[in-house]
Amino acid sequence: QVQLAESGGGLVQAGASLSLSCAVSRRTRTRYTMGWFRQAPGKEREFVAIRWIGGTYHYQDSVKGRFAMTEDAGMNTLHLQMNSLKPEDTGVYYCAATERIATLPTNFDFWGQGTQVTVSA
């Protein structure tokens, strides 16, 4: 089992930056695939960035070059640095974990409560 808690969301103007954090609390030393997802009102939840168990990162095409995912030593905190934000980046951002190799939200087993990111035009 793992508990996740996101923080750092807010309201910003287009072109601004935000840094999100996800506190990770594990009851075992299980290694997980970690991901950031987002969901806009009325739309499906989508993957934003993935950290594979092996330590490499993968990003959705729409955020490549703008977002960067990092992780503190010991897997205690996950980060998502978001630069050059656009209105279409607006949504609730979630961190998630799974023991699988996956990018689909349905394949992730553990989720945080989400943090709201709103980007005005």
Q: Cα distance, first to last residue?
A: 40 Å
Largest sheet: 7 strands, mixed
Helix content: under 10%
Radius of gyration: 13 Å
SS elements, strand count:
11
Low-confidence spans: pLDDT under 50, at least 5 residues? none
Note the beta-strand portion. Answer: over 45%
Structural class: mainly beta
| Helical run tally | 0
Order of helices and strands: EEEEEEEEEEE
Task: Produce a short descriptive summary.
With 121 residues, this protein is mostly beta strands.
Word description of this protein:
It is a single chain. This protein has strands spanning 2-7, 10-13, 18-26, 33-39, 46-51, 57-59, 67-71, 77-82, 91-98, 110-111, 115-120. With 121 residues, the protein is mainly beta. Strands 2, 4, 5, 6, 9, 10 and 11 form a seven-stranded mixed β-sheet that branches. A hairpin with a 5-residue loop joins strand 7 and strand 8. The radius of gyration is 13 Å and the shape is globular.
What is the secondary structure topology, with strand pairs?
Blueprint: E1 2-7, E2 10-13, E3 18-26, E4 33-39, E5 46-51, E6 57-59, E7 67-71, E8 77-82, E9 91-98, E10 110-111, E11 115-120
Parallel strand pairs: 2-11
Antiparallel strand pairs: 1-3, 3-8, 4-5, 4-9, 5-6, 7-8, 9-10, 9-11
Key descriptive features of the protein:
globular, 11 strands, 121 residues, four-stranded antiparallel beta sheet, mainly beta
